[in-house]
Write a structure and sequence with these properties.
Chain lengths: 587, 135
Amino acid sequence: MDRLLPRVLFVDLTRYRFWVEERPELFRDRLGGTGVGIELLWERCPAGTDPLAPENPIIFAVGPLSSLFPLASKTVAMFKSPHTRNLGESHCGGRTALALRLAGYGALVIEGRSDVPVYLAIHGDKVYFRDSRALWGLSSSATVGRILREVEPGSGYRTILRIGRAGESRVSYANVIAETYRHFGRLGLGAAFGSKGLKAVVISGKGSIPVAQVGRYQKLYRALHDKAVRSELMRKYHDLGTAQNVGPLNEIGALPVRNLQAGRYDEEPAFTGERLAQGYLGRRLACTGCPVACIHLAALREPHPIEPYFYKTTFVSYDHEPLYALGTMLGMEDAEGVLKLIDAVEHAGLDAITCGVVLAWATEAFHRGLLSERDTGGLAPGWGDAATYVEMARRIAARRGELYDLLAQGVDAAATRYGGAEFALAFGGNEMAGYHTGPGAYLTYLSGARHSHLDSAGYAVDQEALAQGRSLTPEELARALFQEEARRQVLASLVVCFFARGLYDPETVAQCLEALGSEWDAASLARLGEDILRRKHAFKVREGFSLGALRIPGRVAETPTPHGTVDPDWLRQALAAMSRLLHGEPS
Amino acid sequence: MARRLSVVDVERCVDCLLCALACARRFGEGGLARSAIAVRSAGGVERGFVVVVCRACSDPPCLAACPVGAVEKARVGVKVLADRCIGCRACVAACPIGAVAWDEERGKPVICVHCGLCATFCPHGVLALEEVGGG
Ligand code: SF4
Ligand code: SF4
Ligand code: SF4
Ligand code: SF4
């Protein structure tokens, strides 16, 4: 481990102070990223803290591989979630990891609350609190980025993290946007920013990182680079991006459509990866240090509303998840409508997945008469009506009126007031992702530490089982997902992108760490992964979470998956098995 | 024939910085402190990128500007004699395209030596070594 990694920068927004603490043992034992983040959260977040209180710490952490190895491109954010009120953890690519690491830190902890809106500028060892009153209230998060690009130094080696209106008004699933097109998307980091009066964080760094064994390092780097460039992953995600999942999921009937009233469109959606690439792809981008470049921007050319013969081109980043949540889940038919809606949600600074599920719930509730036009403020949400959804997203971000104020807290809050819990598609308080593949997907949503599809990728287990024509017992499924989630804790501590999981098998990880002067082997890494996972679960339990008390919405069992109908009792058995594993039963 | 690093197709640049990180690895270190190549967005990432690196001028303004003769002509481009350099930054100001990078840790300039390492790590065909006449 190099001498820079264990440096933790603390910022107190209440007293406008900052200081650095050296934590070599912490980084030695927990690597970095999620492993370090959860320990800092345990240390700094008292039990029962209100997620919007000054005491809630916002922790950003990178790891030993960050900036040094290919695809070590992610930063982990750790906080108490304003959305689920327990563990808040979110990962983001872009340039944040490089900037933080080369500014000379392994982690950044932001605490307190400023009584005037500020933004933080961190340039190497200099930290500035800057007045952001002129930025507060701007209608678009993109404008904030544009302004900060002009007034702050560090072009080419900096990150600009900012919130939109939704974060300012503390929508519980407001996101933080990095480099315009990447996000700390889920669980409401944006609301935590907003509650601290923090509009943005700019970090720049271009220092050097010493390497313990230079020869080994150079060789390993080249081998991993070559492998990544030649991999199937590279072709798949570079060509079409994650949007390539839309078509195949629709074909097998695993794509949630119209609030999961169906698992497919009769005909292929107009916004599959292929069709978007052909009709709209305008640019590809990569996170820093990544050869894949999976980020795809659509160029949307629209006539100017006032000036004739004048067009404006908007760039919209598309991925599988927003295409599902703001596309199929809302019964959208045309690609342009989906792209416009994604763009609006982005500018408002809302988590696209939760926003889409919330709008889908509202549409169904409206159709069933649980909501009236009095509640919606005169709007009549209907499947495929992009213009109405754009307006609703704006009202959610502004929390205008009782309905939108509740929708700003997720489907559970809205269903508690208006009814319709059986089709309110949240698990553990977090809205579902775009996979209706079978029991694996649902066990991940329910039991994953972040209630995110990426926690243990049960959807992949479903698809694999489908291909092999086999089905797992509840215990087998729980074990498989526990092991996968444990393994991902190591990746998230290094911190490498989950797309690179095939590249970074435990032996390779141990070699990389050895070249950097740390001793690990496959067995000690496996133990670490399980340990981190249990530490996260224990934090949630401390905050009142219980696997046994989870709600399984009835809709899940109504719409068949490729594995047939999902049985809630079967899921409960799997949850019981998962609970035993999380409480220490050997895996 | 001598070869010069050239930006051959900037439209395909994805802003991954693999080039800049490779350049710093020439010195067996990570990071960007001693990287001679930089990538910047052309006013927002959606507008594309500018790759900033030495063009190997035949009559280099950076060399002419150095008050102590610490920038020398090389077979291609220039060479910085770090032990002679007093860290005045005159070369930085003189380069018309901003291609003299500054190593903050050592207080010395970094200028591309046209070795081509960055091009071998650019996955998208943006950079290449090109033959140049003379030398
Ligand atoms: S550093 Fe600039 S001035 Fe000097 S040779 Fe290169 S391009 Fe020309
Ligand atoms: S910084 Fe060094 S190389 Fe550049 S002009 Fe000054 S003395 Fe010469
Ligand atoms: S050619 Fe060599 S010195 Fe020049 S930018 Fe590329 S790696 Fe650096
Ligand atoms: S390696 Fe190639 S694609 Fe990546 S930033 Fe450099 S020039 Fe652009």
